[in-house]
Amino acid sequence: MAAPDELIKRLYNAFDPFRPLPAGDPAYVDCRAVRGDGEILIELGREIVLADRITHQLYTGHRGAGKSTELLRLTQYLRGQGFRVVYFAADEEDIDKEDAQYTDIRLACTRHLLAELKGGQDNPIWKWLQLRMQALSELLQSEITLDDISVESQIVQFAKLTATLKASPDTRAKIRRMVEPHTVSLIEALNQFITDAMAKTPERSTQKLVVIADNLDRITPIAQTGSSPSNHDTIFIDRSEQLQALKCHVIYTVPISLVYSSRATDLRDIYDTEAQVLPMVMVRQLSGEIYPPGLAALKEVISKRVYASAKADISAALVGGVFDTEETLNQLCLMSGGHVRNLMLLTKEEVKRNEVLPISERAVRRAITEARNTYRNTITSESQWSLLAQVHQKKDILDEAAYRELLFNRCILEYRYINDRGEVCRWRDVHPLIRGIQQFQDALAALST
Questions:
Q1: DSSP letters for 36-55
Q2: pTM above 0.85, yes or no
Q3: DSSP assigned state of 262
């Protein structure tokens, strides 16, 4: 079936893996039943709604699993419950994920709270900024005028600050050195700002304000040297008191590699509840057999992207109209490992390579081969191949730092299911793309000898 260029273009953009779905988007698929029955509206949302005090929560999962889409659903839910919600994706404009520190996160929170709550012109944040105006002007290499105290001007100045933090490594270090000694006073100013601003709203309570800092889980890990903690440890554990200092509910996304490290008990003790995890869609069972409900869920994800997002006017079914055979579609879903972003990337690559529909088995094989090469390049040592082989055999990981990088890079995926007794069970396995790599097969064979 021939497909016009416009249809191919719509399909290509419908599978954009870096665009989270807005709340209520018709392309959204509820995958709770094949993700261990987790529900963000209950696990995080109800925790906030029911609590008599301010809460501090962590949310994690592999990058690209769909956390941002779920957090946007949570944002809509909380607003429907009467809360004011400040949601922001920290890595888009505020922080450099390759080099992020606590100071960057606090300044990002300040900027977005100021933009959302506005407040009065002569507010505590502006007074804090005024005291450091000259130093900041020199660092930003642009004048910050003292005369214009409008709220719009304040937002612009903080936007300059966080944009410079992200874009300029040299200036970033200088800003941190300037801000760090005044962190306590910034938090005090920010909390006073929150109190004043919320007092002017119908809610009239700081407990009706929620800050959601998304994409902090993307902060690249910097390994420990000697007895020094990693950057993840420093931000989320050593500086946890400051992260919890805001006078409002907060949710931070956190790297999954930290949640499954030797510091996991510290995280549980420090924050109010266990870090909530968004696992993969389970497309295979622990035994290795295909899990039909999970496979069906991924097919529904593709179908809704085709018909809801791409608005594709295709009279034929998904099989025969978009994909040549059921086997081609199944192979695509299974090789994604239940990882939604991988599913989007593979499908997008296949659409790109087809001038006509349906997508062929050959196009799927080509996309899988290229994705497999990416994972091959991610694994840098023989010891990592051996660790992956052990994970595949045991369906779990040991509490070793060596696994943290493999978790962070999505070489190891987590799945959850409900057993016959109603218990949530979790297991891990190697990404299916890796299983077809010769080095992995060699490492697996070595374990059996």
A1: TS--HIIIIIIHHHH-SS--
A2: yes
A3: T
